[in-house]
Description:
By secondary structure, this protein is of the alpha/beta class. It has 2 domains: 5-54, Helicase, Ruva Protein, domain 3; 64-198, Dna Topoisomerase Vi A Subunit, Chain: A, domain 2 (3-Layer(aba) Sandwich), CATH 3.40.1360.10. It has 8 helices and 7 strands; from the N terminus they run αααββαβαβαβαβαβ. The strands form 2 sheets. Strands 4-3-5-6-7 form a 5-stranded mixed sheet. The chain has a two-stranded antiparallel sheet with strand order 1-2. The longest helix is centred in the first third of the chain and has 17 residues, at 38-54. The chain is elongated, with a radius of gyration of 20 Å. It starts with a helix and ends with a strand. The mean pLDDT is 88.
Amino acid sequence: MSFPKSIETLVTEFMKYPGVGRKTAERFVFYTINNMDIESTKNVADALINMKKNINHCKLCNNLTDDEICSICKDEKRDASTILVVESPKDVFSIEESANYKGLYHVLNGVLSPADGIGPEEINIKSLWDRVTNKLVKEIIIATSSTQEGETTALYIKRVLQDLDLTVSRIGYGVPVGLNLEYADNLTLSKAIENRKKI
């Protein structure tokens, strides 16, 4: 026996989320049916729509924000001489939770992966070159993941910046090979930034 069409439609939509298989999607749907009234369901739907309408990428660093410029880039107390390059906005939030890093960020929204057709034009790398011409910037810390694609991206950035008067470093000890930053704990991230190495 198949589900009514409206249930099946919502199950299919939930399954579009990463890590959500059919059984989990069905649990979400039946929880909504059995435990949420119309008002609560409407609040969830409104929150999703508002998020899609209001969340932008920061014009400076490409982080997620509900403004043109994110709160980190606006903060005059941040160290503008250091830019930490990360793969995704989730990495920014993970590092900020550690409360140790006080510089600025640059979000690539991906990594280089020639096998998948992802080159420099497909990620947010060009705007990094524009930022490093600012005389205030003294160090670029590359915090891409320690996967093959993350390492390829780090080496590419280093090669392009090698003729500039900048220190280019890579996050160091504490982050296991193959681990994405969003899964690392706060202490591990803090130590990785502290123990960065010049590359």
